[in-house]
């Protein structure tokens, strides 16, 4: 196997999933290479303990892909007390990542004299996590909340999904959409002013990978056909292999099939999301770069007059949180019920709280403008 196709920069978990992060680790370490780093993103298990878990009887290493798949599984975490954070850890995490609802006034105080720009992840942020990715619908009340926010501030949806697919869920033409983990960016529909310079926005930095992604999608569908519950999703510039509905004892077989395909594609990498393996091009582009691109196209390149607020639940959202933190710009808000290592400043527990936060934003903006409350 070549070095390129073993890149696994992030392994994350999800909301109820006891997620862990394995930054810059390979899922398939080659000879002499260290096993994946400890789940540094997870609060509640030490690196030493995690490495120990990688060893089975006789010292044979468990397939690290399967291991990280297990660690990100709610059933696995629930049945493994050592993976659960204790009360002290939860309290200390809440102190360092307070609720964005409780801190609303402080957040708004920081926006004085600045243009707020909203960035919203989709799955797990605007819609609850469900078994079937095709049924991750957004509620009408959430749609109304996002629509109201977009009337007040430039608003973008930033998703791992194919842009058309996420648009079919959100159905609001006035938004910016960054699909395929930010590799497919489009501004609001024609007729809606979409940037300060009033130019349409369309950016696809991974176009040359389209044929390869089509090919790998077909190969993955074929190879995983025999594994009940496996679901391969074509996200245009990337592919998702879902294992949420695959029996845990089959995860090894699934990982093996994915590996057998991926070894032929050194220009693609695999990362892990919430019960999903994500296959995408090895290019220096992610949700963080998409955020920067959108701010620039809105006329806020290197500007201090902007306050971006990014809300997301996923490991891929960490790229955007990191950009905000490094630039000292705006705020990241992590949607999670459990402590996780994050670059976000604040937290919200679930999509219902995201909706409350959006409502408060709109009320705040309207009260500032002296408009009547709807
Ligand atoms: O960036 P996002 O908008 O959060 O997209 C990330 C992935 O979300 C979807 O998968 C996740 O949600 C599904 C529906 O709730 C769930 O079944 C799955 O287990 C989750 O991983 C989407 O299907 C993926 O293609 C996205 O990459």
Automatic annotation (TrEMBL):
Cofactor: a divalent metal cation
Catalytic reactions of this protein: alpha,alpha-trehalose 6-phosphate + H2O = alpha,alpha-trehalose + phosphate
Single Gene Ontology BP annotation: trehalose biosynthetic process
EC nos: 3.1.3.12
Family from the record: Belongs to the trehalose phosphatase family.
General function of this protein: Removes the phosphate from trehalose 6-phosphate to produce free trehalose.
Protein name: Trehalose 6-phosphate phosphatase
């Amino acid at each position: 196997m070549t070095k390129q196709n073993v890149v696994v920069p992030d392994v994350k978990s999800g909301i109820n999933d006891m997620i862990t992060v394995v930054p810059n680790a390979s899922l398939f370490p080659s000879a002499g290479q260290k096993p994946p780093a400890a789940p540094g993103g997870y609060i509640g298990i030490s690196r030493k303990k995690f490495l120990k878990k990688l060893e089975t009887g006789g010292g044979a290493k468990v397939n690290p892909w399967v291991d990280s798949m297990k660690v990100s599984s709610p059933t696995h975490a629930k049945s493994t007390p050592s993976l659960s954070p204790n009360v002290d850890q939860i309290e200390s995490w809440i102190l360092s990542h307070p609720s964005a609802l409780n801190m609303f006034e402080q957040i708004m105080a920081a926006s004085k004299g600045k243009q707020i720009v909203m960035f919203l992840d989709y799955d797990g942020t605007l819609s609850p996590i469900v078994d079937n990715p095709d049924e991750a619908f957004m509620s009408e009340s959430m749609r109304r909340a996002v629509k109201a926010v977009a009337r007040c501030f430039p608003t973008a949806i930033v998703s791992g999904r194919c842009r058309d697919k996420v648009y079919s869920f959100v159905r609001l033409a006035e938004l910016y959409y960054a699909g395929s983990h930010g590799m497919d960016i489009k501004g609001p529909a024609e007729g809606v002013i979409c940037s300060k310079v009033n130019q349409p926005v369309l950016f696809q930095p991974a176009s040359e990978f389209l044929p390869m992604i089509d090919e790998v999608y077909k190969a993955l569908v074929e190879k995983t056909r025999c594994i009940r519950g496996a679901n391969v999703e074509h996200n245009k510039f990337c592919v998702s292999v879902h294992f949420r509905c695959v029996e845990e004892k089959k995860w090894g077989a699934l990982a093996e099939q994915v590996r057998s395909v991926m070894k032929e594609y050194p220009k693609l990498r695999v990362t892990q999301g919430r019960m999903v393996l994500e296959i995408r091009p090895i290019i220096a582009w992610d949700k963080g770069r998409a955020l920067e691109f959108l701010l620039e196209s809105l006329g806020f390149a290197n500007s201090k007059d902007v306050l971006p607020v990014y809300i997301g639940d996923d490991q891929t959202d960490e790229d955007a949180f990191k950009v905000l933190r490094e630039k000292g710009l705006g705020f990241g808000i992590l949607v999670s019920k459990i402590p996780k290592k994050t670059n976000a400043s604040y937290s919200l527990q679930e999509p219902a709280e995201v909706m409350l936060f959006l409502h408060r934003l709109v009320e705040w903006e309207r009260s500032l403008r002296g408009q009547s409350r709807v």
